[in-house]
Records
---
Amino acid sequence: MTTISETAYPRLKTKFTDNELVLNFKPNDDELTLMEKATQTPSGETKLGFMILLKCYQCLGRPIATNSVPEQITNYIAKILNIDISSISMSHYDKTSSRKRHIKRIREYRQINTDEQARKLCLKTAALNAASTKENIADIINDILDELIKSYFELPAFDSLLRLAKASRVVTNNHYFKRISNELTDETKEFIDNLFVTDVPTETSLWNKIKQDPKKPTLQNVKTFIQHINGLKQMRSKIN
C-alpha cells in the first residue's frame, strides 16, 4: 500500500523552526494588501482565516480547513497580524461563506487554472504517460503532481491521486498484455501456459526451475548451470 510519505505530495509538518515559519508563513506587503481587499469585515477571525488559507495554499497547492492547521502556524500568523486569538474559532470560520469567497480570491491571486475539464484531462494524460514507463505507484503519483503544478492546476486529495495512479497502471498493463498476446502464436501461448503447470510429485513447475539461482561455482555446478543455460536457449527458440 503506497503511503503519502512515499510521494512528493505536499503536507504540513507538525513542527517548524523559526526560520521555516518566516520563510513559509510570513505575509509580504502584497499579501497583506490582498487580505485587506478580500476581507469585507474588520473581524480578526476573517482576516486570520484568509491569511492562513493563503499561506497554506502556497505550501500545499490546495485549500484546507483552517482548524486542521498546526497551532504553531496559526499562532505565528496571528502574531504577525496582531490578532488576539483567544476568542477566535477557526472551526466557525471554516463554515462561513467568507471562506468560499476567500478561496476564490486566492485562486485568482495564485493564477490557478479552474477549468475542471482541462484539469481532468491533465490528470488522465499525466497518469497514463507515467504508467507507460513506471510501475511504482509513488513514481506515477509524483509525475502527476509535476504536471498539475506546471499547468497551474489545484492539487486533488491524495486518495484521488492514489486511485488514479492504480487505475492508470491497470489500464496500461492490460494494454501491453493485449498487444503482446496478439503477437504470440497459439503454440507459443500453450508453451507459456505449460511453464506454470505444477508437477504433483515434486510440487514445482518448469517456471520454478527456470528461476533457480546458480549454486556455488564448483566444477559440477558449473556444468549443471551451462546445461541450464542451454535449456533456456532451447526454450527461447520456441517463443515466436
---
Amino acid sequence: MNKLQKTILTASFTILAIGMLPASSVFAADFTVLFEQSPLFSEANFLPGGTVTRYVDVTNNTSETETIGVKAKKYTSCSVDCLADQLKLVITDGTSNLYGEVSLTDFFAAGEKKLSDLGAGSTIRYYFTVSFLPGAENNYQDES
C-alpha cells in the first residue's frame, strides 16, 4: 500500500465519523443507531476515482414520529490542499437522495441536516456514499 492509500484511509474516513442525532430534543435512549461498521469508513485501498457506500440503521423507540438528522463531529478545518474538498458525500434512504452531493468540507460546515421523519417504532436505513474525485493529485498525500 502506498503513502497516498494509507493517508486517504486514515485521514478521510476517520474524519467522516458520522453521528446520527435526532433533530428534536429527545433522549438518545429513544433511538437505536447501528452502524454497518465502526468507524463507518475504514477502507484499505481508497484512491482518486473510488466510491464507498456504508449504511446506518436508525430505530425510533418512541411512540411518536421523530425527525432524524445528521452532522459531523470532531473535525478540523484546513486552508490549503484540503482533502475534504476532494471527497463528495451523498446520503440516501435507498430510493431518495436525502442530502445532495457535496464536499465533506461543505458537509462539515453545514451543521445538523434533517434527513427524514421516522414513525413510531420504525427503522430506516441511511446509506452514506463517499466518492474521491478522480482528478485529485498527489497534493493530498499525508493530509488529514
---
Amino acid sequence: MAHPLRDRNFRLLFAGRAVDALGDAVSPAALTLAIVIATRSSAGLALVLACALLPRVTLLPLGGVVVDRLGPRRVAMAAAVVSGAAQLFIGLLLLAGHIDFPLIAVAAAVKGAASGFDTPATLPLVAGTTDGDGRQAANALMGIASSATSLAGPALAGVLIFTVGAGWAFILDAATFAVSAATLAVIKV
C-alpha cells in the first residue's frame, strides 16, 4: 500500500486543508477575544456566533446536493473564496477599529453559509485524490491535521491578538483560504 502523501494531488489537498484548518482555528478565538475585550459583551458574541452557526447547519444538506451536482473541487474552491472574502472583511473592520455587530454578524453568516457547502466536499475530495488502499490512511492524516490545528490555532490567535491585534488573525485566516483555493485549483480529482 502506497502512502497517500506520495500522491501529488492528495499532498496538495492535505496541505491546503491543513493550512485552512489552522486559519479556521485561529478566527473563533480571535473573534471571541476581540469582541469581549472591545465591548465586554457576551450577548454580542453570542449573536455573532449564532449568525455563523445557523446558516452552516441549515445549508449542510443543500451543500451535499450541490457537491453532488457540481463536483467537490469546484464547490470547495467557491466556498474558500467566499469564506476568505468574509474573513478579510472582518479583519479589515477590526483593523480600522470598528466593532460593528451588524456588519460582523453578516460577514460571519456569509462565512457560515460557505462552510455549509465546503464541509460536504471534504470526503469526496479525499476519495477523489487517493486510491482505495490509501483512503483510510488519508482520512487518518486529515483527522490528525484537524486535531493538531485545533490545538495550535487558539494559541496562535492569542499571540496575534496580543501582539498585532485581532484584525490580523482574520487577515491570516483569509490568507489560509486563499492557499486552500489555490491548492484546489491545481489538483485533479
